[in-house]
Amino acid sequence: MENVANLNVSKAQQTTHPFAAGELVLDSIPSDERLWVPMVDGVWFRPLMFNVVQGGWCHLIRVKKAGVVSRHSHPSPVHGLVLKGKWRYLEHEWIATEGTYIFEPPSETHTLVVDEDTPEMITFFHVSGSLHYIDESGEAVGFDDVFTRIDLARDHYEAVGLGGDYVKNFVR
Fold first, then answer.
1. Average pLDDT for 123-132
2. SS (HEC) of 30-83
């Protein structure tokens, strides 16, 4: 499927303001494994949209290992929707299963865990702002924002033969 942002649309077909960001329509779970960007062993993200104006992103997280994925907090809200498998936060009683919607309020620290009985988990997340990685003592040990995620994707796409500019397909 061709990215709609790359199509030349005549003025008669144009439905948005000429200065508006281009529409983005894509297969969220790609057949090309190269589109999954590795983060740590057994964990990947699949960019859907990088919002460089408001500083957030939409992506899929895919986990194919059991255990702690990360402990982190967000200064801004996050929305999630489980597409496959299940996961939980150590700090809560609930388990997010396929079809579960999650709203994460600003400032909450949580530890994402995938249990042994889940061979693969895929969740859509809309992250506003940044993500701060936290160690067991509550200290910040790193962060991600839209630009660090763009850099990770660009470097990965270059390494797998798609070219670093491939990441531009997701930037709005």
1. 97
2. CCCHHHCEEEECCEEEEEEEEECCCCEEEEEEEECCCEEEEEEECCCCEEEEEE
Residue 40, domain CATH: 2.60.120.10
Reported as a single tens digit per residue, the pLDDT across 72-105 is: 999 999 999 999 999 999 999 999 999 999 999 9
Are residues 82 and 98 in contact, defined by beta-carbon separation less than 8 angstroms?
yes
The end-to-end CA distance of the chain, in Å, is 19
Query: Does the pLDDT of residue 5 top 80, yes or no?
Result: no
- 5 in a domain, yes or no? no
Plot region of 34 (φ>0 → left; ψ -120 to 50 → alpha; else → beta): alpha
What is the reported pLDDT for 8? 52
pTM metric for this prediction: 0.89
Q: What is the rounded distance in angstroms from the CA atom of residue 64 to the CA atom of residue 49?
A: 23
Site of tokens 């104006």:
53
Give phi and psi for 25, each to the nearest 5: -130, 120
Tell me which residue range forms the domain holding 136.
28-170
Overall number of domains in the chain: 1
